[in-house]
Design goal:
Shape of chain B: elongated
Number of domains of chain A: 1
Oligomer: heterodimer
CATH class of chain B: Alpha Beta
CATH topology of chain B: Pyruvate Kinase, Chain: A, domain 1
Number of strands of chain A: 9
CATH superfamily of chain B: ATP synthase, F1 complex, gamma subunit
Distance between the termini of chain A: 39 Å
Number of strands of chain B: 6
Distance between the termini of chain B: 29 Å
Largest sheet of chain B: 5 strands, mixed
Strand content of chain B: 5-15%
CATH architecture of chain B: 3-Layer(aba) Sandwich
Structural class of chain B: alpha/beta
Helix content of chain B: 55-70%
Shape of chain A: globular
Chain lengths: 123, 294
């Protein structure tokens, strides 16, 4: 049994991320939830928030999404999201990526909370 | 001499046409690149979305959900009225692109009508609308201007009436037809049964682990997913069709340019022959004039 999950994050503009990960955290409609390998098959909706996952090499990556759904299987996770922006950037790039995130979240309720948490990550 | 002038005029007009078709080809090539990129990017999302919905449809077959959501997955219901939604271009000059779609639609209509099933036509694009209007067919709903500039919100608006008919049980089946993009030189006609969700061809690929829908509110989840599925399929067929339209036009204009080139070549030969002939006649006239003076 493989203890790795194949994560695919797809937006209407194409594939955002595809690769093996150790664990993932999703902003579910009913609250945040984590997914580890061998998770039971489930389908649920996602709301605006942060998807965070640990890659095979241990590095943690995060991206902000506005809405979508996710299909979890034992070995694979497919997240279909409407829009996504990666949380990254150093120095002057931070402002730019924050702007992108604000733009993405303009239709999402309690977006301030998400933005605040993004800001704390970046600084 | 009059003949010569006429040929010259023809050559000029054909080369003019050739210039136009070449320009149109270049425009289509540029537009195709953009449309193709958009279609390619979205195709993955559309594919995965359909996969997810198929999986859910398969797992829901047994549990028979109620309400509108259940209706969307119920493939056993008898079909009395079918809504055919199809996409054509707003503009012509793209070879058999539009007529192919129209032909398929006519075939489907005949097929259904022979079984005593009524048809609702929902048309995107001027060409399809004009055809069916000319043939005095009843058109339920049409929209012009959407296929040349696909827009998500407008697509949603257009498809909403179809979905409403379906959930009111006025329509028992929704079929979506468009001429899709395959590669630069080929288009592929895609007939997609939108509602009820088609489960017949995916049954085998569903693995043993049945998919569970998070229990807190199954109906909300399904409704959201179905909405997305329908809207996105509609939108995707628009952008796919646009890419195909440009590739079809590019090809049509390319062959038109080539034909014009051939024609100019033929006309030039004709022109030279006529010129030669007139010179010969003139020479004969001069010579015979000289001869008669001797």
């Amino acid at each position: 049994m493989s203890n790795k999950l194949l994560l695919e994050i797809i937006t209407p503009n194409g594939l955002i991320f595809s690769g093996h990960v150790n664990n993932i955290r999703f902003p579910g409609e009913e609250g945040e939830f984590g997914v580890l390998p061998e998770h039971t098959s489930i389908f649920t909706l996602l709301k605006g928030g942060i998807i965070e996952f640990t890659k095979e090499n241990g590095s943690i990556e995060a991206l902000v999404i506005n809405a979508g759904n996710v299909t979890v299987d034992k070995t694979s996770v497919i997240a279909l999201v409407d829009g996504a922006v990666a949380i990254e950037g150093k120095g002057s790039d931070i402002a730019k990526s924050l702007n992108n995130i604000r733009e993405l979240l303009k239709d999402v309720t309690d977006s301030n909370l998400i933005i605040a948490s993004v800001e704390s990550r970046l600084s | 001499m009059a003949n010569l002038k006429e040929i010259q005029r023809k050559i000029k007009s054909v080369s003019g046409t050739q210039k136009t078709t070449r320009a149109m080809k270049l425009v289509s090539t540029a537009k195709l690149r953009r449309a193709e990129e958009l279609a390619k990017k979205s195709s993955l999302y559309a594919k995965k979305l359909n996969e997810v919905i198929s999986k859910i449809a398969a797992s829901i077959q047994d549990s028979k959900a109620g309400g509108v959501e259940g209706l969307c997955f119920d493939s056993t219901r008898t079909v009395k009225r079918v809504a055919i939604v199809f996409v054509t271009a707003d503009k012509g000059l793209c070879g058999a692109f539009n007529s192919q779609t129209i032909k398929t639609v006519i075939r489907l209509i005949k097929d259904y009508e022979s079984k005593g099933i009524a048809i609702d036509l929902h048309i995107v694009g001027k060409k399809g609308y004009e055809y069916f209007k000319y043939n005095k067919r009843e058109i339920k709903h049409h929209v012009i201007g959407l296929s040349s500039s696909p827009d998500y919100d407008k697509a949603v608006h257009f498809v909403a009436s179809v979905v409403e008919d379906f959930s009111n049980k006025r329509v028992d089946k929704v079929v979506l037809i468009h001429n899709g993009y395959k590669n630069m030189i080929t288009q592929e006609l895609k007939i997609n049964q939108l509602l009820p969700v088609d489960v017949s061809n995916i049954q085998q690929q569903v693995n043993d682990s049945t998919l569970e829908i998070e229990a807190y509110n199954e109906e909300v989840v399904l409704e959201a997913l179905l909405k997305k599925y329908i809207e996105y399929n509609m939108y995707y067929s628009l952008i796919d069709s646009l890419a195909a339209e440009h590739s079809a036009r590019m090809q049509a204009m390319d062959s038109a340019t080539n034909n014009a080139k051939e024609m100019v070549k033929g006309l030039k030969i004709k022109f030279n022959k006529a010129r030669q002939e007139s010179i010969t006649t003139e020479l004969i006239e001069i010579i015979s004039g000289v001869e008669s003076m001797k």
